[in-house]
């Protein structure tokens, strides 16, 4: 002990300690005020707030209405309270967590509150993605991948549950990949992420699937330790499935996504469930060009499991337009380490690097805490100011206020046969609906009967449908074929006709 003490007090030891303290101070002083993740996340957040983006979808009405119902009744609904065609039919709001967030944001800031929430989700997602990439690859390459992801996410920034879980999605896959690449068990705190995810959006089933694939990838790359790696992942995987059962529907929620995919009529009438239109240039085309080009150049060499995972995500994106966001968000995580391993390392700052390289590298480490605590409040203040000036509202296309007022002034207790695009707004207004966007509630047969009647298909019959459900008013878009037919039917009277909506009420003396 005395010898050790003497060494520590010797001139050489003192000089070494002083040098260490000097190096620490130098690192502290060299630490950048800002960083790429902070800049990218704040820029994305402010951009969405300034543009007022996120409300261009009728479902925002539904999610606020469901959240309002949950707050008012103190529990998650188990039967439908909103329609008159499926009244009291079994139904559970599987996105109830996101719907509570929606109504709280709405009560705090109106529709601007939802835009703020969606903008924060978008910004946080990109910031975490950028930090994950910077730990593995050159800053310029990380920016290219993050920018490509941002372009694919941007067109799907809609203030709905699937956007609110983006930060949970990237936390989940980022934590799993960290564990997979280090051949260790995932951190147990990720189970909290899964608990939130499973009660906010049904895409959690994808998270469970990715977990199994990454567990397989970790074990397959473990060499002689593959059995040990598998044993380390086993308890976590079992616990994740157990946590996924902690929801109002229990085991049924695990099957819910497959039930929805089985409703094939959605592919025809719901835009985000159709395949993407590749005839017009979009970010997905750019993603394909970049990935195929990099693969041909030998810059992407994936393990078998990762290659299969990326191909599955690509197949999902080509099958349903809404999955393009998932491809753009998740593929950079899977590609980061393989791309970095295949790309020549750029010289570090100060080692013959150019000014641009030094600048890129300077913004790679985490920003100073004081910069974060100053920048974020300023960004929030700027976003709030922009939202107050903009006062964003859902487009009139989905909110037929005047048409509904014309019906309510003539029919005190309406049973409205409505366009599916107007159903969520009617629920928001407290009016019982004929149909809305909850395809899982109505089912394939009911939706086909309704859409056939609206489009005047050979099997459709609007008068039979309205009589079957004792309809006394109709609210539809004027572009529908049935609108022209109703104008000629003697039993109906047009009470409103506008650019986006046309309303009819049943004539006096005409019974359904």
Description:
62% of the residues lie in helices and 4% in strands. It is mainly α. Strands 1-2-4-3 form a four-stranded mixed β-sheet. A hairpin with a 4-residue loop joins β3 and β4. The longest helix is centred in the first third of the chain and has 39 residues.
Q: Count up the domains.
A: 2
Q: What is the element string, with H for helices and E for strands?
A: HHHHHHHHHHHHHHHHHHHEHHHEHEE
Helical segment tally?
Answer: 23
Measured by DSSP, the beta-strand proportion falls in under 5%
State the end-to-end distance. Answer: 99 Å
What form results from the Cα inertia axes? globular
Name the average pLDDT. 87
Portion in helices: 55-70%
Q: What composes the largest sheet?
A: 4 strands, mixed
Structural class: mainly alpha
Total beta strand runs: 4
Spans of at least 5 consecutive residues whose pLDDT stays below 50 are: 1-29
How much is the radius of gyration in Å? 28 Å
Strand order of the largest sheet: 1-2-4-3
Topology at a glance:
Elements: H1 2-9, H2 11-30, H3 36-51, H4 59-73, H5 96-134, H6 139-154, H7 161-164, H8 166-181, H9 190-198, H10 204-220, H11 226-244, H12 252-261, H13 266-269, H14 283-296, H15 304-319, H16 324-342, H17 355-362, H18 369-390, H19 401-408, E1 416-418, H20 420-428, H21 439-454, H22 462-468, E2 473-476, H23 481-486, E3 492-497, E4 502-506
Parallel strand pairs: 1-2
Antiparallel strand pairs: 2-4, 3-4
């Amino acid at each position: 002990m005395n010898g050790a003490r003497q060494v520590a007090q010797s001139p050489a030891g003192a000089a070494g300690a002083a040098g260490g303290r000097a190096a620490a101070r130098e690192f502290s002083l060299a630490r950048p005020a800002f960083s790429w993740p902070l800049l990218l996340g704040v820029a994305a957040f402010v951009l969405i707030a300034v543009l007022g983006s996120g409300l261009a979808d009728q479902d925002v009405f539904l999610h606020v209405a469901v959240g309002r119902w949950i707050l008012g009744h103190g529990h998650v609904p188990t039967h439908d309270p909103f329609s008159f065609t499926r009244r009291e039919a079994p139904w559970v709001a599987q996105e109830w967590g996101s719907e509570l967030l929606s109504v709280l944001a709405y009560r705090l800031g109106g529709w601007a509150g939802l835009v703020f929430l969606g903008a924060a989700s978008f910004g946080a997602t990109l910031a975490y993605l950028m930090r994950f990439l910077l730990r593995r690859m050159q800053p310029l390459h990380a920016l290219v991948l993050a920018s490509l992801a941002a372009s694919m996410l941007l067109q799907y920034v809609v203030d709905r549950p699937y956007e609110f879980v983006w930060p949970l999605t990237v936390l989940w896959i980022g934590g799993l990949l960290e564990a997979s690449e280090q051949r260790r068990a995932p951190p147990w705190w990720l189970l909290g992420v899964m608990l939130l995810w499973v009660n906010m959006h049904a895409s959690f089933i994808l998270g469970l699937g990715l977990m199994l694939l990454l567990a397989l990838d970790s074990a397959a790359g473990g060499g002689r330790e593959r059995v040990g790696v598998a044993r380390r992942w086993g308890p976590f995987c079992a616990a994740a499935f157990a946590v996924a059962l902690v929801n109002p529907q229990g085991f049924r929620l695990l099957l819910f996504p497959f039930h929805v995919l089985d409703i094939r009529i959605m592919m025809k009438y719901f835009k985000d469930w159709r395949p993407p239109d590749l005839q017009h240039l979009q970010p997905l085309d750019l993603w394909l060009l970049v990935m195929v080009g990099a693969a041909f150049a030998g810059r992407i060499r994936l393990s078998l499991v990762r290659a299969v995972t990326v191909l599955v995500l690509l197949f999902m994106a080509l099958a349903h337009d809404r999955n393009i966001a998932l491809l753009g968000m998740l593929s950079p995580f899977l590609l980061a380490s393989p791309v970095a391993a295949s790309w020549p390392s750029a010289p570090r700052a100060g080692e013959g690097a150019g000014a641009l390289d030094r600048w890129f590298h300077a913004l790679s480490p985490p920003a100073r805490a004081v910069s974060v605590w100053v920048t974020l409040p300023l960004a929030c203040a700027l976003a709030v100011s922009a939202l107050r000036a903009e006062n964003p509202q859902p487009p009139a296309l989905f909110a037929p206020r005047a048409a509904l007022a014309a019906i309510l002034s003539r029919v005190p207790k309406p049973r409205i046969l409505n366009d599916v695009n107007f159903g969520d707004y009617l629920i928001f207004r407290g009016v019982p609906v004929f149909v809305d966007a909850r395809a899982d509630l109505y089912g394939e047969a009911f939706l086909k009967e309704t859409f056939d009647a609206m489009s005047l298909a050979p099997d459709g019959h609007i008068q039979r449908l309205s009589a079957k459900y004792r309809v006394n008013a109709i609210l539809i878009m004027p572009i529908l074929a049935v609108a022209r037919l109703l104008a000629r039917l003697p039993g109906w009277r047009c009470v409103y006709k506008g650019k986006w909506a046309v309303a009819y009420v049943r004539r006096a003396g005409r019974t359904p």
